[in-house]
């Protein structure tokens, strides 16, 4: 029995991929972050950013919060802000799926849609401009240490414990980079031999949740030294693997999860032996109005 929906954040399942890997000497495990109450890995960071901000006094209940998001962080922030009775405005490109917008509004957030051509960078610019005007407090997931520390405190220890310390490689898509930074920091403290593999889109590929940031927008929490290797995936590879996850593994996830899994499968086929863990960062239901599953 739980006292709050917040108590359901984390401790997500780690499931062995049944048939994606042909290499008999390598095991691939998928961490199902869609099992979080808000439906994604971002519940962890959203809770830690808001709770830590409240505990320090950086955030008060009479403030207006604002944050730019591509989707999952916004949904998580809307859910957590509602629980703590906080006023939050979320900014995202107008080509975001309707499921994301409606879910944020269902949790009580105000949603502002910016020009699609500007992408998430345009949404970030809008949010920063409003903050500079003095009307809002911005959590700034891209520069907020509470983002990556959420994964240092929870995701990393869960993976280490669930694999009994046998993990050899950790694979994660890179967006804000909070997941990979925090998990890397913890796992490397346990064993310097654990290899951290980041996943980025190939040039011109558009994969929601995975970014190759222009230098001016590179997340300030990102430390390249904490990533041993970066693999790139195409839009087609991400889509194909997302569909395979649903049809072959029974794992209904989004496109960034497909991208990370595609990279993880490639990695598994290159290794002589190992235990690979890859993040499945969300659920597929927030992509149904897109052409992902057509």
UniProtKB/TrEMBL annotation:
Pathway per the UniProt entry: Amino-acid biosynthesis; L-cysteine biosynthesis; L-cysteine from L-serine: step 2/2
Every Tryptophan synthase beta chain-like PALP domain range: 7-282
Claim: Amino-acid biosynthesis is one of the keywords in the record: yes
Residue sites binding pyridoxal 5'-phosphate per the record: 72, 175-179, 256
Catalysed conversion reaction: O-acetyl-L-serine + hydrogen sulfide = L-cysteine + acetate
EC number: 2.5.1.47
Required cofactor(s): pyridoxal 5'-phosphate
Entry keyword annotation includes Transferase: yes
Keywords: Amino-acid biosynthesis, Cysteine biosynthesis, Pyridoxal phosphate, Transferase
Pfam families, alphabetized: PALP (PF00291)
PROSITE patterns linked to this entry: CYS_SYNTHASE (PS00901)
InterPro entries to which the protein is assigned, alphabetical: Cys_synth, Cys_Synth/Cystath_Beta-Synth, CysM, P-phosphate_BS, TrpB-like_PALP, TrpB-like_PALP_sf
Residue positions, PTM N6-(pyridoxal phosphate)lysine: 42
A GO MF label: cysteine synthase activity
SUPFAM superfamilies (alphabetical): Tryptophan synthase beta subunit-like PLP-dependent enzymes
Biological processes per GO annotation: cysteine biosynthetic process from serine
Protein name per Swiss-Prot or TrEMBL: Cysteine synthase
Species of origin: Salinimicrobium marinum
């Amino acid at each position: 029995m739980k006292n709050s929906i917040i108590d359901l954040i984390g401790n997500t399942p780690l499931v062995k991929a049944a048939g994606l890997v042909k290499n008999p000497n390598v095991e691939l495990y998928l961490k199902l972050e869609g099992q979080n109450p808000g439906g994604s890995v971002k519940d962890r960071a959203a809770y830690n950013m808001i709770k830590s901000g409240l505990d320090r006094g950086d955030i008060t209940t009479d403030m207006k919060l604002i944050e730019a998001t591509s989707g999952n962080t916004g949904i998580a922030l809307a859910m957590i802000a509602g629980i703590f009775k906080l006023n939050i405005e979320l900014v995202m490109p107008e080509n975001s799926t309707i499921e994301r917008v409606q879910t944020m509004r269902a949790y009580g957030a105000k949603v502002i849609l910016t020009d699609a051509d500007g992408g998430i960078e345009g949404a970030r610019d809008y949010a920063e401009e409003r903050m500079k005007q003095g009307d809002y407090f911005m959590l700034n997931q891209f520069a907020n240490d509470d983002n990556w520390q959420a994964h240092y405190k929870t995701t990393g220890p869960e993976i280490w414990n669930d694999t009994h310390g046998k993990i050899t490689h950790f694979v994660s898509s890179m967006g804000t980079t909070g997941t990979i930074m925090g998990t890397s920091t913890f796992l490397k403290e346990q064993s310097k031999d654990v290899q951290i593999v980041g996943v980025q889109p190939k040039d011109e590929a558009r994969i929601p949740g995975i970014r190759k940031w222009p230098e001016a927008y590179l997340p300030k929490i990102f430390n390249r030294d904490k990533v041993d290797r970066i693999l790139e995936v195409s839009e087609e590879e991400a889509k194909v693997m997302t569909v395979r996850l649903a049809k072959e593994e029974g794992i209904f996830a989004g496109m960034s999860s497909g991208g990370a899994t595609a990279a993880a499968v490639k990695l598994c086929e290159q290794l002589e032996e190992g235990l690979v863990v890859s993040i499945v960062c969300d659920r597929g239901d927030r992509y149904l109005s897109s052409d992902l599953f057509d």
